[in-house]
Amino acid sequence: MKLVLATQNKNKLTEIRDMLPKEWKVYTLDQVGIHKELVEEGDTIEQNALQKADFVFKKTGISTLADDSGLEVDVLFGQPGVHSARYAGITKNDSANRIKLLEEMKFKTNRNAKFRTVLAFTDNAGSNIFQGWVEGYITDKEYGVNGFGYDSIFSPHEFEGLTFAQMSFMEKQKLSHRSMAIKSWMKWMISEKH
Questions:
Q1: Could you read off the pLDDT of 50-85 as tens digits, one per residue?
Q2: CB atoms < 10 A from the CB of 78, how many?
Q3: From the candidates 18, 54, 68, 151, which is the catalytic residue?
């Protein structure tokens, strides 16, 4: 199977590629001639994922998988959510985003949060979306050096006391929101015999 991964985020590319069958021919955006960052203008994570998958498929004619993810904090009514990548401003800055979120959470006792990924798959038959999520909480400060984004301030309930950034790549891959979404999509792909 040929597949374009519709993201310029090298960390997401690594996580997604790791879970795909090795015999698939997987292309990055650069390899198909799309060198700029894809526009994310949707009001929801679902809209952003669909917008990216549809755009890349129309440009390339190759089956496309797009990812949009967000950290949804209960006490902040689901924020940063769809704005996770640019929470601290119009440019993407992981460190500034974490600092802003930790500041907003400083005096909050309810620290429950959910990391959610929506995958959009577009091919000649149309578009389908798949979700994965992991529940946990926002820590009081940053812990760990692995991962990216909000990994150093999010601790999944399943690994209480460890943030994603304190886990090995393989530990995170077993339970992350992105891996749950990919597993859901792969199950569908097998049932649809793609």
A1: 999 999 999 999 999 999 999 999 999 999 999 999
A2: 15
A3: 68
